[in-house]
Amino acid sequence: MSNVEKEKVVELIHVDKAFGDQIVLEDVNLPIYEGTTTVIVGPSGTGKSVTLKLMMGLMRPDSGQVIAFGHDISNISNKELRKIRMNFGVLFQNVALFDSMNIFDNIALPLRERTDATEDDIRRNVQEKLEMMDLTGADKKFPAQLSGGMLKRAGLARALVLDPRIVFFDEPTTGLDANKSAEIYRLFHHTQSELNYSAVIVSHDVPKIFKLSDFVVLLAEKKLHGCVSPEDFQLSDNPAIRLYVEKNIGPIYSSLIEEAGFYETF
Ligand SMILES: Nc1ncnc2c1ncn2[C@@H]1O[C@H](COP(=O)(O)OP(=O)(O)OP(=O)(O)O)[C@@H](O)[C@H]1O
Ligand SMILES: [Mg+2]
Question: In terms of residue numbers, what domain contains 122?
Answer without folding.
Answer: 97-163
